[in-house]
Amino acid sequence: GAAPADRGALVDALVKLSTFAAAHAHEIGAVDINPLVVRERGCVCLDAVIAPHPNPLPSRGEGVKPKDTHE
User: Which residues are CB-contacts of 30 (< 8 A; sequence separation ≥ 6)?
Assistant: First the structure.
């Protein structure tokens, strides 16, 4: 059979991608990773495309004016 896959490396890569995508959800339209090769030790993305959102939303806080504290 095939060599064992490094499941920990796969989980780590997916968590990092998920964290990045959540932080930039207002800007990202699509993510395509093909292939993601999981090896006996580690994993590697051989090709990836991150496409921008066609109508990006402002990020949190962007366009929000601070409240005047001297009212």
Answer: 49, 50, 51
Q: Determine the pLDDT at residue 61.
A: 58
Q: What angle do CA 48, 54, 62 make, to 5 degrees?
A: 100
Distances in whole angstroms, Cα of residue 58 to Cα of each of 20, 22, 31, 49, 63: 16, 14, 19, 22, 7
What integer pLDDT is reported at residue 65 of this predicted model?
57
If you ran DSSP here, which 8-state letter would residue 56 be given?
A: P
Q: Per-residue pLDDT tens for 23-35?
A: 999 999 999 999 9
Question: What is the C-alpha separation between 33 and 5, in angstroms, rounded?
Answer: 18
